[in-house]
Amino acid sequence: MPPAAERVPWRWLAAGRASRRLVLVVVFVALLLDNMLLTVVVPIVPTFLYTTEYEGTNSSVAPAWTEPAPPALKAPPFSSMFSYFDNTTVTVSGSASAAELVNRMESSRLPRPPASSSPLPSGCPEGEEFLAKENVRVGLLFASKALIQLVVNPAVGLLTNRIGYHIPMFIGFIIMFLSTVMFAFSGTYTLLFIARALQGIGSSFSSVAGLGMLASVYTDDFERGNAMGIALGGLALGVLIGAPFGSVMYEFVGKSSPFLVLAFLALLDGALQLCILQPSKISPESTKGTPVSTLLRDPYILVAAGALCFSNMGVAMLEPTLPIWMMQTMCSPKWQLGMAFLPASISYLIGTNLFGILANKMGRWLCSLIGMAVVGISLLCVPLAKNIYGLIGPNGGLGFAIGMVDSSIMPIMGYLVDLRHTSVYGNVYAIADVAFCMGFAIGPSAGGAIVRAIGFPWLMIIIGVINIAYAPLCWYLRNPPAKEEKIAILSQECPMQTKSYTTQRALRDFPLTDDSDVEAENAE
């Protein structure tokens, strides 16, 4: 009996390693943690830098302005009034020295508000010039992750072709854990910048290896679309929890607390990967994948990548600029800075799961086209909000539309590789991740500079119009030609060298419908 009981865990592990669902769970958790860390810093960093750098500097200077108070010891009743009230009733004392002291204190205090008048939760923060500069600094910090990912992603795509997806996935977990711990204990802008860049390396390993692994185990196009929708649900859930979780924990517990919780969850994910994925196992692809340079010359892959880039660039521009705009115009407290992203996160979660199934029926190209148009309209409506409740509609529409685009484009990338190239997915999902990262690299860095130059409303108008103008290009994804057809047209080879499209299940018209399998069988 005991030997049989001992075999049970090993049987479970063996069954788990052969289960596609557990692979999906691992990828889901990895994307969840990556995007929780991505968004948990959104409400924390602007207020943390404002507190430590602006208010900290002013509070250290404040004693120099209060040092002239001791000469007022001759008139104790009025000296207490001089330090707290700057009204004209204090001149009733008739003392010339006291009146001079009042004049000196008023002239010294007027140029700089006293540090003791720091904003209450319902008051607007001081330092307009500091906040304007902070737009650029916070934007660069947020963009550093995506910039590093842009550099690392192609190398990770090549690595997965050589050694498989398991080891890169585990490397991503280790780097993400180190980045999370560093965030928890960083107290300066430089250390936060390094932690954010380190997160970019770990995210590159996790996302490219995870999406490539899913595409390799779910070979059927319909099942792959559903699996991608569920995995992107993990991404959405991370975005959903991240910003509100970070703002509430920072307000009521402290800066380090949300990152320590994420570090603990990352350890659990690492243990799950050790049990399920066998990260010591080297399993290269049996066939050589299409080079990245060849994939980048494919116009259909470029159109799909552009849709990913521009749709996500909108929310990427909002991340550093919306909290600061809310501080300036709505006088929002800390906890509202993260809660403003809650409608977008909830609607993104709904959109990815809903259109993971619906997009296959109504056409993924059509979902992408409609999604990008709605993204543009939602961004145009954001500056119209006068309080946090006015952001619910625009942010909700934005999240739902991005969910439509992401859950449609990710399966399209795998389908295009099956249709037009070799069915090895590491490189194409490296390109997809590069497109995603370009949005999150250009968005925050350019967004902060644009806000400082012409203002937040104009930033929303610019990126909204770009999304609406790009949307019609998704029509080209409606029925992309197969690889053999392209070769026959461009190279004018003998028609006998091309295959008949009516007998190829992999070359059916896109988008697929429920009746496509029946039509293919009848054709055979």
Notes on the structure:
Helix content is 75%, strand content 0%. The protein has a single domain, classed as Growth Hormone, Chain: A. The two termini are 54 Å apart. The protein has helices spanning 2-17, 20-40, 44-66, 76-84, 96-109, 128-163, 166-185, 189-217, 221-252, 256-276, 292-296, 299-329, 334-339, 342-362, 364-381, 392-420, 426-454, 456-470, 483-491, 516-523. The protein has 524 residues and is mainly α. Residues 60-122 and 488-514 have low confidence and may be disordered.
Strand tally: 0
**What summary fits the major beta sheet?**
none
CATH class assignment: Mainly Alpha
Report the CATH superfamily: MFS general substrate transporter like domains
- The succession of helices and strands, N to C, reads HHHHHHHHHHHHHHHHHHHH
Instruction: Outline the low-pLDDT stretches.
Output: 60-122, 488-514
What general form does the structure show? globular
Instruction: Please give the CATH architecture.
Output: Up-down Bundle
Structure class:
mainly alpha
Domains, number? 1
Main location: membrane
Catalytic activity: dopamine(in) + 2 H(+)(out) = dopamine(out) + 2 H(+)(in); serotonin(in) + 2 H(+)(out) = serotonin(out) + 2 H(+)(in)
Transmembrane segments: 21-45, 171-195, 201-218, 230-253, 259-279, 300-318, 338-358, 365-385, 397-417, 429-450, 456-477
GO cellular component, one term: synaptic vesicle membrane
